[in-house]
Design a protein that fits this description.
The complex is a heterodimer of chains A (about 90) and B (about 500). Chain A is α+β, with helices and mostly antiparallel strands. Chain A has 3 helices and 3 strands; from the N terminus they run H-H-E-H-E-E. Chain A has a two-stranded antiparallel ribbon. The chains are: A alpha+beta (about 90), B alpha+beta (about 500). Strand 3 of chain A pairs antiparallel with strand 10 of chain B, so a sheet runs across the interface.
Chain lengths: ~90, ~500
């Protein structure tokens, strides 16, 4: 179902650094989860429309009215690093 | 040893555009922070923009309305059921590590727009329909400020401003129907015109409200299969779009002719050197692992709502162009110039509604008034001359009350101070002299004042007719009817 290569790819995409032991461990665990969920495929769903949502709600919108967030400093201070009014991040290769 | 030169292969380019348009809302797509451009860094941020745990994004109703209207104006089918998805990637301009976008159920699909191409030499106009694959809503990312630029090239960090993060965009994807740089630039301009007519985006390329990415490949003419596609970014004017494409077509054809492979990559247009350069591709960036956005319920546009929005659409530039040519008898060129900006088209329409001859009104607007607007960097809304007063002036020229010259002399005052041209003409006594007896009397005076010239004329120096016309105009401040004056002058000179 899912092999070591796929686990490595997903880890790379999610920026996770896995040790060889963890790679093995997650391959086994993910497979058992997928096998469990796979049981659903025993049902014949040919005539059942796909569910995209658990709650029947649509068109939740708000008016285009400006409200300034009251505590900008709080947001800036949540970052690991800042410089003046900027968020500071490691340099990105470009 | 010689060998016959192979026939030169003809190539054609296959081009598609992805255009991002910023919607003109007050607030962000999913939160009530301001979308104002040019504010101090990180002043328009809030927990939703930053993707703090536990926040709830809620769609701005204007974004939906604007996106649907844009879709309708682009002749798209509006999805009865649409949803948002998360597009995952890691880049520091994206505070949440995902962008809320639309993946498999975009708000609008399967549309088209019509571009008009004018041949530079023959002035011949051709029209071409360009398919629109899809239009979807999404949020913009923030802006990276690379600390110190060149001087601090060794700098180890970047700075991020999230003011732009969460600003509402529509992304419009064209079919690969474009073949030249000119077509692509024209497509982008028509898209901008439509967005501005709708009032859903200001289309300002300098401020990044309109951004175009180009997908381009070349293939031998007659070949079905597409060549390898290259993406070009970073063009911030319509002429840059055209030039980048023209450069890239030449580059790709040269590479193929030399037997070099085309690499699928993203290239940047460099305005300074007028060329495209290869950009290192983001590793694994093609795998976005989209999934439905769980915080935002789906969108259902009811037929009634759709009808209301459809009814609110203005007449669009292509429709105006067609109508001006067919119903008002204007040239394709005049129709194009008049309809470029909605405000100008509406000014023109008010002038003809007030009785102005369409061709005359078109000439005044596209020539004298346009020249003034250009010189003063004004828009048509900023001039004192109302469309109704323009109509009054044009009608006075049309019925012979004033000459075109008098109108041109009056124009600066009308543009800056306004007022009724009729009242000005009456107050200053500028009306045209069209009584043949009065004109004849003036001609007699002029001829009497210049006996030498008259003698020379009668001796065969007929070029002097222009001299006499000039003297008559000078004496009357250009108020005499020029046609009648010439007729009478010729009679008198010969007589």
């Amino acid at each position: 179902m899912i092999d070591l290569e796929q686990v490595r790819k997903v880890a790379t995409l999610a920026r996770l650094e896995l040790s060889p032991e963890e790679e093995e461990q997650f391959t086994t665990q993910l497979n058992s989860i997928l096998e469990y969920v796979e049981q659903l495929n025993q049902l014949d769903t040919a005539d059942v429309p796909p569910t995209t949502r658990a709650i029947e709600v649509s068109n939740v919108t708000r008016a285009d009215q400006k409200v300034t967030f009251s505590d900008r400093e709080l947001v800036l201070n949540c970052a690991p690093d800042r410089e003046d009014d900027y968020f500071k991040v490691p340099k990105i290769l470009d | 040893m010689t060998s016959a030169a192979p026939a030169k292969t003809q190539y054609e380019a296959v081009i598609g555009l992805e255009t991002h348009c910023q919607l003109s809302t007050e607030t962000k797509i999913f939160s009530p922070s301001s979308t104002e451009f040019g504010a101090d860094p990180n002043t328009h941020i809030d927990p939703v923009v930053m993707g703090m745990p536990g926040v709830l994004p809620v769609l701005n109703e204007k974004v939906l309305q604007y996106a649907v209207k844009a879709g309708l104006a682009l002749n798209c089918q509006i999805a009865p059921y649409s949803k948002f998805d998360r597009k995952q990637y890691f880049y520091p301009d994206l505070p949440k590590n995902y962008q809320i976008s639309q993946y498999d159920l975009p708000i609008a699909e399967h549309g088209w727009l019509e571009i008009e191409l004018v041949d530079k030499k023959t002035k011949e106009v051709t029209r071409k329909r360009i398919g629109i694959t899809r239009l979807h809503m999404e949020e913009d990312a923030g802006k990276l400020v690379h600390a110190g630029s060149d001087r601090l090239a060794g700098s180890t960090y970047s700075l991020v401003d999230y003011n732009r993060a969460g600003v509402p965009l529509v992304e419009i994807v064209s079919e690969p129907d474009l073949r030249t740089g000119q077509e692509a630039a024209e497509y982008a301009q028509e898209l901008r015109r439509i967005m501005r007519y709708l009032g859903v985006s200001d289309g300002n390329m300098q401020e990044g409200s309109l951004r175009c990415d180009v997908n381009i490949s070349v293939r031998p003419v007659g070949q079905e299969a597409f060549g390898t596609k290259v993406e070009i970014k970073n063009m911030n004017s319509f002429s840059a779009i055209q030039k980048a494409i023209e450069y890239e077509i030449d580059r790709q054809i040269a590479a193929i002719a030399a037997g070099e492979p085309i690499v699928q990559e993203t290239r940047l247009w460099e305005e300074g050197s007028q060329r495209t350069i290869s950009m290192r591709s983001k590793e694994g960036s093609s795998d976005y692992r989209y999934f439905p956005e769980p915080d935002i319920p789906p969108i259902e546009v009811s037929p009634q709502q759709l009808e209301t929005w459809q009814a609110e659409l203005p007449e669009l530039p292509a429709q105006k162009r067609a109508r001006y040519e067919a119903d008002l008898g204007l040239s394709a060129y005049d129709a194009r110039v008049l309809t470029d900006e909605r405000a100008v088209a509406e000014y023109f329409e008010r002038a003809i509604a007030a009785g102005a001859d369409p061709k005359m009104a078109a000439n005044w607007i596209t020539q004298d008034i346009a020249a003034y607007l250009n010189a003063e960097k004004l828009t048509i809304d900023n001039i004192a001359l109302t469309a109704e007063h323009l109509a009054e002036m044009v009608t006075m020229i049309d019925d012979g009350t004033i000459s075109t010259k008098i109108a041109k002399d009056m124009l600066p005052e009308l543009l800056t101070q306004g007022g009724s041209p009729k009242a000005i003409v009456e107050a200053k006594g500028l009306s045209q002299i069209s009584d043949p007896e009065k004109i004849a009397a003036i001609i007699d005076e002029v001829l009497a004042a210049h006996p030498d010239e008259l003698a020379k004329f009668r001796a065969g120096k007929t070029k002097l007719q222009g001299f006499f016309v000039g003297q008559i105009m000078k004496r009357t401040n250009g108020r005499v009817d020029p046609k009648l004056t010439n007729q009478l002058l010729v009679q008198k000179l010969k007589g």
